[in-house]
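In line with agreed milestones, the collection of sequences with tokenised folds has grown. One record among many is set out beneath this paragraph:
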Amino acid sequence: MLSPRLVKNSLIAKLLRVDGIVLYPFIFFASKNPNDVLIHHEMIHVDQMKRVGVWRFYFLYLKEYCACRLKGMNHHKAYMAISFEVEAYEKEGARPHHLNDYF
């Protein structure tokens, strides 16, 4: 799997109204200077993709989101209930070694 390319000040992220998003092999950030926590959060998603496969990651991610929405959750609650997001938010605070590759 290729290392992702970080794209800062991204129109894609801004149009999607997100701080960051992995559309492998790219990570798009709305900011010109995304902070380490956000970069780490998105890199955790890349690690998850390595673990389960890119297409399976996106399938499971959307499946969980849609299931939560069908249960009546609003967008934010459904997003926060996705297992990949739960893991990423739990792990995002510690600076991992792979961030050093980007600075």
